[in-house]
Amino acid sequence: MDGTLVDSTPAVVRAWTTWAEEHGITAEQLAGNHGMPAASIIARLLPDAERERALARIVELETTDVGGVVPLPGTVETLTVLPRERVAIATSCTRPLAEVRIGASEIPRPEVVVTVDDVERGKPAPDPFLAAARDLGFPPERCLVVEDAPAGLSAARAAGCATLAVTTTTPRAELEADLVVGTLADVRWHVRDGGIEVALAD
């Protein structure tokens, strides 16, 4: 969702900057964690005794600041063209944060939304995409994952899904996917009885 469907970068930066300053974490220590669940990031940075309170604090910061959360190019068109029952969001956000950002961005909400709260392991483990495929009623190999981060693409490949990457947050050279485009505005979707075709925009 974040960096793929919606641009939440200003809010994310504000929240994590505040959190890092409060916990004595440097920007260098935070780097390279995009697309991973907050709990996983915190587990890499803080001792066990501090993690529960630290997680509660970042959840508070992120859910109360949605200023500037907007759809990325092509998102609204994509979610309007594709049938809601054939689309899922699989995000590293918690359930409350996902709902807040979906609401703030005003994007069409798919019927299936899988959050880090719904799985045992978050990205880069395949669990979020396996859960989304299950809830949609399709085998993973019949699903296409759209991602902006290496951790998410690793999760998609591990799940057996096809991959489409957007370069909204990560340089093209760092994205290993079946197809890489700038944003969802660069593709067109064609709904068929047997599936959905994706093609490059003219």
Order of strands across the main sheet: 5-6-7
Q: CATH homologous superfamily name? A: HAD superfamily/HAD-like
What is the CATH architecture annotation?
3-Layer(aba) Sandwich
Structural class comes to: alpha/beta
Mean pLDDT: 95
Total domain count: 1
Largest sheet: 3 strands, parallel
Strand portion: 15-25%
How many helical stretches? 8
GO molecular function: sugar-phosphatase activity
Pfam families: Hydrolase (PF00702)
Keywords: Hydrolase
Organism: Auraticoccus cholistanensis
Describe this entry's structure for a reader.
- Keywords: Hydrolase.
- InterPro entries: HAD-like_sf, HAD-like_SPP, HAD-SF_hydro_IA, HAD_sf, PGP-like_dom2.
- The chain has 202 residues and is an alpha/beta fold.
- The protein has helices at 9-23, 27-30, 38-45, 48-63, 75-81, 95-105, 127-136, 150-159; strands at residues 6-7, 70-71, 88-90, 112-114, 144-147, 162-166, 179-181, 187-192, 195-200.
- The strands form four sheets. A three-stranded parallel sheet has the order 5-6-7, with helices on one face. Strands 1-2 form a two-stranded antiparallel sheet.
- Helix 1 runs antiparallel to helix 4 (48-63) and helix 3 (38-45) packs across helix 4 (48-63).
- It is globular, with a radius of gyration of 17 Å.
- 40% of the residues are buried.
